[in-house]
């Protein structure tokens, strides 16, 4: 298969929310207290809501920035590529990268709306969260039909409200919801607790995929404050193995046989080892741990029900037959620092040699469209959805680096976790 | 290759220390205050030393016990298989499993002697630690020459004393030392700190392999106190990936080019994914993180210098050419619960089909003998070291389960981390 003939659907990109997102989506009663963008004394932008400040962290919007200007300091909208927050520009950036459709995770509300959940006034929080979801579906996804796969944020403080919101969003055509890889780390019951059953039930009934994104426990992997940041960056994706193990051994998959979950940005190359380990533990330890998977192995349950997701993972693709070829999906991660944008087709193409066309189609788009119930081709027929066709629309998109003197760093010493902590805003 | 022709050298087993270990190894001045075995009111045995009590945790000595009696409660010597603590019986148990030679990690002193390091009187601690190491080399390894590969414990509270002990042990023929996968978790400087340089230097100069065993940070992976124990058991080996990332990005490997480290019980099937990720991070982030590996990739440095170790890992063996075939080693894990004893040859044989004999030889024994500078064949010529030859010596070894009514558990509910915590002795 030629690179220009690929059809790419990314199940993991990120929206940097524009300042006007709540306009027209929140009732007058709550409008005054909805999150607002402010410009701080140093010129950086931040969301403020109920006494909480959320800055736009540098690494979360680095597409098009020279790598020596990466960092985690707060940034300004004016320093970002407009495709981070402007839907028309985003579509142009997707075209330039040959990406037909994309599922976008939130930025300032955090992966499963932790920012909203921290508000003391939960009626306000719910109004804001619903306004956010409406904006996401109606504007971010609705402006260019067929290009953005909708994803809801749930009100994690109440599983019954979560179920209601899942059903409300499904009625609007949204079949994905972002949840936490480890709610216990957020001060909530764990994945092993039946507290969440109303939520799982609603997702099950509405064919809504539960996406567990790396970092959605609000924690990063810090081996040591002295460690180079490369250590954390290396470990962060694979750390989702903890959620994978929780899922396998929890009652969730067995109690809700129609529920599908995704390990967003988790990578795939480690999964065959993990599943072999899971089955080894089952065979060797079930005598005293009392696990029971009936006539299946736990690895089989995982493979049937868990969507695996990768950005750049040649070893995983090589071993795709140790996974479920119908549940492997691809990610672009725009505009984060691990993204392959704007050369995703070339990055992916490097290790598709020898993969049959039918399997390439599953991995690049068919699986994503099926699991997220998304009808790409209604709006974008096959021949208009290819890398070649989309790139032809974007010949005028400037793909050169845009530098910002303010973000340039001095020094050549290895950057440690401590250095990073010093860049972070003190209030977050 | 036939199973009976394999030569098996295990780089990870465990000694349960016998009560008389310090006799004749510690000077009269410290003998009174050396660790002693006591029998508690409930009949279980424990070591006591300077106010600390260390019990024999059930899972650490379950070889030969029915799986429905596994658990972490304190046990008695009389409930263990004698091969756990008696060197003559251990050799018979090794013979029955066809294992020619074995490297043994400590039990009550913890993986890198944390138990000794907690003593307030550091002169006493050093005397005890040296006595332990002398016992290990002279008795545990010396009684049956050629069968036990020696492993030292270092005095982790002082890197200069560590260097001295490494040199003293090397002079006694010991070329392995157990250290921590994350000393920061023990309240000591991290692997990134030059604090440890005298230790690395001594290991480098004496060709001593530094073994980082899973759990040697004194921490287990607990996703949730509500999680089934299977979650922790699944995750514990792969958790060594954190130490692997620390090593790759720390100055250690680059500053000490002759130093070798081993990721004991870490498994191997996840390593190719990890190394691909490491190189991706290097290429994408070095512009701002300032890492420099000269004309190499970080994955190459890892593959050259880090010994990988597995118990049962068919996927890893299948992908051995993504690793360094000269640095893959095998483990039996006797008498722990993940051990394949007494059917290790059969368990390993399952996925050696299609592996060339020369590569089987490297994985099963040649690599281990080379990296640990151990001359097996001086004492046990090739034809006497095979699975078939050793098992022929052990026809009378009883391999049936030995049950203990006291350890049998009621109930069929999934066992959680909380249940496990309740089994643990309160004083540890």
From TrEMBL, chains A, B:
GO molecular-function term, one example from the UniProt record: carboxy-lyase activity
Source species of the chain: Pseudofrankia inefficax (strain DSM 45817 / CECT 9037 / DDB 130130 / EuI1c)
Organism placement in taxonomy: Bacteria, Bacillati, Actinomycetota, Actinomycetes, Frankiales
Coiled coil feature spans: none
Keyword Hydrolase attached: yes
Cellular component, GO, one term: cytoplasm
Keyword Lyase: yes
Every Amidohydrolase-related domain range: 79-374
A GO biological process held by the record: secondary metabolic process
Name this protein carries in UniProt: Amidohydrolase 2
Pfam families xrefs: Amidohydro_2 (PF04909)
Superkingdom in the source lineage: Bacteria
InterPro entries reported for this sequence: ACMSD (IPR032465), Amidohydro-rel (IPR006680), Metal_Hydrolase (IPR032466)
Alphabetized UniProt keyword annotations: Hydrolase, Lyase
């Amino acid at each position: 298969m030629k690179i220009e003939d690929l059809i790419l659907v990314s199940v993991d990109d990120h929206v940097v929310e524009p300042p006007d997102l709540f306009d027209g989506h929140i009732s007058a009663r709550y409008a005054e207290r909805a999150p607002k963008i402010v410009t701080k004394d140093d010129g950086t932008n931040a969301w403020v809501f109920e006494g909480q400040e959320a800055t736009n962290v540098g690494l979360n919007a680095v597409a098009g920035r020279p790598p020596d200007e990466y960092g985690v300091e707060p940034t300004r909208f004016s320093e970002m590529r407009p495709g981070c927050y402007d839907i028309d520009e985003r579509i142009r950036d997707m075209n330039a990268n040959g990406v037909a459709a994309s599922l976008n995770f939130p930025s300032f509300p955090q992966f499963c709306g932790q920012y909203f959940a921290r508000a003391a006034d939960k009626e306000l929080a719910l109004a804001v969260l619903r306004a956010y979801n409406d904006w996401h579906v109606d504007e971010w996804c609705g402006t260019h039909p067929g290009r953005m796969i909708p994803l809801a944020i749930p009100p994690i403080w109440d599983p019954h409200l979560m179920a209601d919101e899942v059903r409300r969003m499904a009625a609007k055509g949204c079949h994905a919801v972002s949840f936490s890889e480890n709610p216990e780390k957020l001060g909530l019951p764990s994945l092993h607790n039946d507290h969440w059953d109303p939520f799982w039930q609603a997702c099950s009934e509405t064919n809504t995929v539960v996406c567990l994104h790396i970092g959605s426990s609000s924690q990063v992997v810090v081996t040591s404050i002295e460690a180079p940041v490369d250590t954390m960056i290396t470990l962060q994706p694979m750390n989702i193995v903890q959620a994978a193990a929780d899922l396998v051994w929890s009652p969730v998959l067995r109690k809700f046989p129609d529920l599908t979950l995704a390990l967003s940005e988790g990578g795939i190359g480690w999964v065959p080892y993990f599943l072999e380990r899971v089955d080894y533990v089952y065979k060797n330890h079930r005598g005293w741990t009392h696990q029971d998977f009936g006539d299946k192995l736990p690895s089989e349950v995982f493979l049937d029900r868990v969507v695996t997701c990768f950005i750049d993972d040649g070893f995983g693709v090589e071993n795709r037959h140790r996974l479920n070829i119908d549940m492997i999906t691809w990610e672009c991660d725009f505009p984060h620092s691990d993204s392959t944008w704007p050369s995703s087709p070339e990055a992916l193409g490097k290790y598709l040699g020898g993969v049959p066309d039918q399997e390439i189609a599953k991995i690049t788009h068919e699986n994503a469209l099926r699991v997220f119930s998304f009808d790409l081709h209604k709006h974008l027929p096959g021949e208009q959805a290819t890398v070649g066709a989309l790139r032809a629309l974007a010949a005028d998109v400037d793909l050169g680096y845009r530098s910002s003197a303010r973000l340039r760093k001095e020094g050549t010493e290895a950057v440690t976790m401590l250095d990073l902590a010093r860049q972070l805003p003190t209030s977050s």
